[in-house]
Design brief:
It is built from ten helices and eight strands. By secondary structure, it is an alpha/beta fold. The chain has one domain: Aldolase class I (TIM Barrel, Alpha-Beta Barrel). Strands 1-2-3-4-5-6-7-8 form an eight-stranded parallel beta barrel, surrounded by seven helices. Helix 2 packs parallel to helix 3 and helix 6 runs parallel beside helix 8. The longest helix is centred in the last third of the chain and has 27 residues. The mean pLDDT is 96. Bound molecules: pyridoxine-5'-phosphate (PXP). Pyridoxine-5'-phosphate binds next to strand 8 and helix 10.
C-alpha cells in the first residue's frame, strides 16, 4: 500500500500581493480556507521579522481559522525572542525554525543548527513544552541532521531549493544527498518533511524518498493559481504527489 504524504500550503505570497497595494485583497485567510477546501492538509505561514508579507493580524486570524477547521497551522519563525513570544501566545500546531536575513528574497538556505546548539536548544525545548511540534528547516547534511536531533527537534524539514535549482542532469547527486539525510534523520527518530522551490515535477521527484511524510509548498502553487485557480493548482499537486508515491500515473 502506498503512503499518503501530507501537503502543507504556504500562503505567504497571497499576503505579498495584498501588501503591494496596502489593502485587504487578496486575503490570505480566504486563501487558507480555499486551500483547505481543495485538500491541503495544513497551512504554513512565515511571520518574517520585517513583516513583508504575513502580519501579526494574519497570524491571529489563521490560528483561529485552522483551529476551527481542525487543521494544523505551521508557523515558520526565526530564532528570536520576539518570535518565540508570538508562538507562545498563539500556540499553533507546529513551529518551524528557519534562518532569516532581511536582505534575502526568500529563505535562502537551511538553519545552521550545528554550531548554534546552545542558542537553538532552549527555544526548541520551550516550544515543545508549550505543545508545539518543533521542526527545523535544514540543509540535507549529516552534521545538521545530527545537530537537529541533539537539540531535541521532533521534525526536520529539508530545504529542497538547491535540488530544484539544479539542472535535471545534476539532480541525482542532490537527490542522493536528500535520501541519505532522510534515512539518517529517521534513524535518529526525527520525522522528515521537505520544501522550498517545489513544483508539480520536483515534488513528485523528491517523493521517491520514502521517509518524507510532508511537503510544504507555496510560491509555485500561488503562482499557478493565477492560471488555474488555487483549487485547481492544489488538486493537481495532490494528484502529482499521490502518483509519485504509487509509482506513476494509473
Ligand atoms: N518550507 C519552508 C521552511 C520555507 O521557508 C518555505 C518558503 O517560505 C517553504 C517551505 C515553501 O517554499 P516555496 O514558497 O518555494 O514553495
Amino acid at each position: 500500500m502506498s503512503r499518503r504524504v501530507r501537503l502543507g500550503v504556504n500562503i505567504d505570497h497571497v499576503a505579498t500581493v495584498r501588501n503591494a497595494r496596502g489593502g485587504s485583497h487578496p486575503d490570505p485567510a480566504r486563501a487558507a480556507e480555499a486551500a483547505l477546501a481543495a485538500g491541503a492538509d495544513g497551512i504554513t505561514a512565515h511571520l518574517r521579522e520585517d513583516r513583508r508579507h504575513i502580519t501579526d493580524a494574519d497570524i491571529d486570524v489563521l490560528t483561529a481559522l485552522c483551529r476551527r477547521a481542525g487543521k494544523p497551522l505551521n508557523l515558520e519563525m526565526a530564532v528570536t525572542d520576539e518570535m518565540l513570544a508570538i508562538a507562545l501566545r498563539h500556540r499553533p500546531h507546529a513551529a518551524c525554525l528557519v534562518p532569516e536575513r532581511r536582505e534575502e528574497v526568500t529563505t535562502e538556505g537551511g538553519l545552521a543548527v550545528a554550531g548554534q546548539e546552545a542558542r537553538i536548544a532552549p527555544v526548541a525545548r520551550t516550544l515543545a513544552q508549550a505543545g508545539m511540534r518543533v521542526s527545523l528547516f535544514i540543509e540535507p547534511s549529516p552534521a545538521q541532521v545530527e545537530a537537529a536531533a541533539a537539540v531535541g527537534a521532533q521534525v526536520v524539514e529539508f530545504h529542497t531549493g538547491r535540488y530544484c535549482h539544479l539542472s535535471p542532469g545534476q539532480r541525482p547527486a542532490e537527490l542522493d544527498r536528500l535520501a541519505a539525510a532522510a534515512a539518517q534523520a529517521q534513524g535518529l527518530g526525527l520525522e522528515v518533511h521537505a520544501g522550498h522551490g517545489l513544483d508539480f515535477g520536483t515534488a513528485g521527484e523528491v517523493l521517491v524518498i520514502p521517509e518524507i511524510v510532508e511537503l510544504n509548498i507555496g510560491h509555485f502553487l500561488i503562482g499557478e493559481a493565477v492560471f488555474t485557480g488555487l483549487d485547481g493548482a492544489i488538486r493537481r499537486m495532490r494528484v502529482a504527489m499521490d502518483e509519485a508515491v504509487s509509482g506513476g500515473a494509473a
